[in-house]
Design goal:
It is a multi-pass membrane protein. Pfam families: ABC_tran. GO terms for molecular function: ATP binding; ATP hydrolysis activity; ATPase-coupled transmembrane transporter activity. The protein is of the alpha/beta class. The N and C termini lie far apart (71 Å). Helices cover 39% and strands 16% of the residues. α1 packs antiparallel against α2 and α7 packs across α9. Among the domains are: 70 residues; 151 residues, Rossmann fold, CATH 3.40.50.300. The strands form two sheets. Strands 6-7-8-3-9-10 form a six-stranded mixed sheet, with helices on both faces. α10 links the parallel β7 and β8. It is built from ten helices and ten strands.
């Protein structure tokens, strides 16, 4: 209310002061209008300063948080002299222990996992057991505290980050969809993909309907807001499939799908002629070509205080389903 009252008082004062001269004929009437508009313009120019001053403290605090984040060391860095990319695509975790930054408990302890070239492996287990952490290690988004992670026999820490990421595309459960066309988002995986390639992969992942609604060259909205969460997740899977990489890493690709759609997607992934590692809470729909690896959370010692998150885990290989 004060913001509106002050300009009104200013206009009133201008009209009173200049209006008397206009009434006596000492001043041109045009000056009366100019005075009123000038007062309004002046208040319009400075009207937002009060709100800006009120927000300044929050802005400074946000800037401090951004600055502190920028000063943190990166989780992973390129080696000084990276090795050439290996020819093979076998994956291995060797006695891997991992603690997330700032966490009080270990995420993984002494995990050993071998994924042969061309093998299809499903990681399962309860929430917090470390399934996504294993994917992060394979992608080298994180480095282990102890042990090593290898691709084609080479320690990931000895390879250039760009080479690791190019060899192992990751389909996140909630993938990043950019504010561009559907085709532009898909071509992030392979920029030379033809329109026929894009249409085929959309049909493969059950998104043929988008060809008639959004269209390949249709705008998907900021952060893919024109797509549902399930459609955005499938776009992430489509990008991974479109990539020529020999390894696929997928985090909960069947989440929120009905049984028929989940089974069709699992069959599609099983038919890939490359190494596939996926995370899921449910093994329903997996056939005998998948090897199931369960991440088990051991019971805490007697008398131990309750943990804020599940404790150390070990990888245990379950019998293949089907």
């Amino acid at each position: 209310m004060l913001r509106e009252a002050v300009p009104a008082l200013g206009v009133g004062a201008a009209l009173w002061l200049v209006g008397w001269d206009v009434a006596t004929g000492a001043t041109d009437p045009v000056l009366l209008a100019a005075s009123a508009l000038g007062v309004l313009g002046a208040f319009e120019a400075v009207g937002g300063l009060g709100a800006a001053w009120s927000a300044a403290g929050g802005i400074r605090a946000a800037a401090d948080r951004v600055r502190a984040l920028g000063e943190q060391p990166p989780a992973v860095t390129d080696p000084a002299a990276p090795l050439p990319p290996p020819s093979g695509s076998a994956l291995r975790l060797e006695s891997v222990t991992l603690t997330h930054r700032g966490a009080r408990r270990l995420a993984l302890t002494d995990v050993d996992l071998a994924v042969a070239e061309g093998e299809r492996v499903c990681l399962t287990g309860p929430s917090g057991a470390g399934k996504s952490s294993v994917l992060a290690l394979l992608l080298r988004a994180l480095d282990p505290d102890r042990g090593r992670v290898t691709l084609g026999g080479a320690d990931l820490r000895a390879l250039a980050l760009a080479d690791v990421r190019a060899r192992s595309p990751w389909a996140a459960q909630s993938p990043q969809v950019l504010g561009r066309t559907l085709a532009g988002n898909l071509r992030l995986a392979r920029d030379d993909a033809s329109e026929a390639d894009l249409q085929a992969v959309l049909r493969d992942v059950g998104l043929a309907g988008l060809l008639g609604t959004v269209g390949l060259h249709g705008w998907v909205g900021e952060s893919g807001e024109r797509l549902s969460a399930v459609e955005r997740a499938r776009v992430g899977v489509a990008r991974a499939l479109l990539s020529p990489a020999r390894v696929l890493l997928l985090d909960e690709p069947t989440a929120h799908l009905d049984a028929a759609a989940a089974g069709a997607l699992l069959d599609l992934l099983a038919a890939q002629d490359r190494t596939v590692v996926l995370v899921t809470h449910s093994t329903a729909g997996l056939d005998g070509c998948w090897r199931v690896v369960a991440l088990l959370v051991p019971a805490p010692p007697a008398g131990a205080p309750p943990a804020p998150r599940p404790g150390p885990v070990r990888a245990a290989v379950a019998a293949p389903t089907g």
